[in-house]
Amino acid sequence: MDYTAMEQYWIWLSSVEGIGPKRFYQLLSLYEDARSVWDALGGPLTPPDMKFLGAPVLEKLRAARDERYFYRLFGRLDQLGVRAVTRLSDAYPPALVSIYDPPTTLYVRGEGALDSERMLAVVGSRRCTRDGQRAAREFAQGLAENGVTVVSGMARGIDSCAHRGALDGGGQTIAVLGCGVDIVYPPENDRLMAEILDSGGAVISEYLPGTPPAPGNFPARNRIISGLSEGTLLVEGAKASGAMITVNFALEQGRDVFAVPGSIYSPLSATPNRMILEGAFPALCHWDILEHYRWAQRPGEDPRREAKPVELDADEAAIVEPLREQALTFDELSAVTGFPAAKLNSHLTILELRGIIEKVPGGQYRSYA
Prior knowledge:
Rossmann fold, Arc Repressor Mutant, subunit A, 16 helices, 12 strands, elongated
């Protein structure tokens, strides 16, 4: 990729380990631009006004002021097919300019637009319920089908389901990583990352390629997830979860917050329910978000009722109806229906084969039909 000379110096400075956004912008407040920082380090003595960086970072910065480092950096980006988007570039997302500590440089894989007018973050717990997984997929799919780019963090659980739903909806999705864009994390998401890129989406990070995942990186990357987006949808999440960090960033950034309500007895729904009480917009389906932004008009028939009713005989209905309300064990179903074990087992097998019910953790059955 071609960069202007000023962009090259900007990328160089932002690539140095220890030069995060705060130190980067501090240096730019002291010097005219990144090239001036390079020039100031050309002498044998360290400029006094750089001493705020501390000895370890200063040593790394001096070591990086080297043409070999410079050319290795850009050669590596080209080799990986990664483009560096700086705040000097027209491709830098306008939505990030106004947030606190905007990333100095974004490393991008893929062709997904970072400045789409319709972008929404979908976040939630890594340890999510089946209902949470389903909600994330269905919301993201419905949003993607209506031209909304779904933004998430490609973490286990809700994030991965959101990306998957967007792909199922034939739309674009952007994954914001807490490591280099050349690293798949978690590793089981290698296929998901490939599909995101193949579908015209993007994988982005403020961390230099090769940067391994580290606990401190993930809270920081969450400000980018919320900052890119018009609003953030919380599907499930505990009070101290990473998802709530994203929600708090969204509130600080003046973005909208939506929450999927859940059972008052589910620990993972306690926070979304509380957020709704405190003013978050309740979202029962993707149309609630689309209509909020006037991105699309809900069809005359409620899309939550569009599916054709499943045809059941009396015995099957006696099993399925209670499973639509809550998950039950075999013994609980036997008590509810009054069916002998052999009869109940036969019906459960047939209903599972038809895709009307499914087994869930804890030896229970559940129906979403």
